[in-house]
Amino acid sequence: MPATNATGARERLLDAARLRFGEEGAIASTLEDVRRDADVSVGALYHHFPDKRALAAAVYAEVMAAYQEGFVRELREQATAEGGIRRGVEHHMRWIATHRGEASLLLAERLDSDALRHGNRVFFAAIEDWWRPHTAYGALKALEPELTSALWLGPAQEYCRHWLSGRPRRMGAAVVQALADAAWDALRENRKTEVSR
Question: What is the CATH code for 1-50?
Answer without folding.
Answer: 1.10.10.60
